[in-house]
Write a structure and sequence with these properties.
Order of helices and strands: HEHHEEEEH
CATH class of one domain: Alpha Beta
Mean pLDDT: 78
Number of strands: 5
Shape: extended
Strand content: 15-25%
CATH architecture of one domain: 2-Layer Sandwich
CATH topology of one domain: Beta-lactamase Inhibitory Protein, Chain:B, domain 1
Largest sheet: 5 strands, antiparallel
Number of helices: 4
Low-confidence stretches: none
Oligomer: single chain
Helix content: 25-40%
Length: about 160
């Protein structure tokens, strides 16, 4: 009995230490793990007092948690663990009264400055095309059709009687 316990302890200790060694090996790829709703400061800065639930849903997306007993509280949770680093967690709770924001609580706070969102639209100048013929003219010229209807003369041959 003692031999089996001793054997198990001698086998399990090196196996447990393998995880410590393997986690700290250089040049080993570690997967980034993101969970929950993506939350960043620009999203929180867009929130204003007296926004409706629908407006908050548009800015923040659907909440991670909606408590059945507290319908006026939406919780957004985002955790991120970059390969080999410690886990980072952001939480935001939004409180509503009469379907309007009454308070925000969590690790991210809205700023007092107005939101200035740069436009992602870009202007592109397209030069005018100088074509001798349009596509339609090119296609009809292949079949020698110039757009004029002509009557086709059919020549009748006399019926030949044997």
């Amino acid at each position: 009995m003692r031999k089996s316990i001793l054997f198990l302890s001698l086998v399990s200790i090196p196996l447990m230490s393998c995880s410590l060694v393997l986690d700290n090996l250089p040049y080993v790829y570690k997967v980034d793990v993101n969970q929950g709703n993506v939350i960043d400061q620009t999203m929180i800065d867009q929130l204003r007092p007296n926004m409706t639930k629908r407006q908050v849903l548009y800015v923040m997306g659907s909440p991670m948690l909606v408590d059945f007993f507290h319908q006026n509280r939406w919780d957004y949770i985002f955790s991120s663990k970059k390969g080999g680093e410690n886990m980072e967690q952001k939480t935001v709770s939004i409180f509503f009264e009469n379907d309007q924001i009454k308070g925000i609580q969590g690790s991210l706070k809205p700023s007092a400055l107005p939101v200035v969102k740069p436009s992602g639209d870009k202007m592109v100048d397209v030069p005018k095309r100088d074509l001798e013929k349009t596509l339609w003219e090119t296609l009809t010229s292949l079949f020698e059709y110039d757009g004029v209807k002509r009557d086709v003369e059919v020549t009748k041959q006399p019926n030949s009687v044997p």
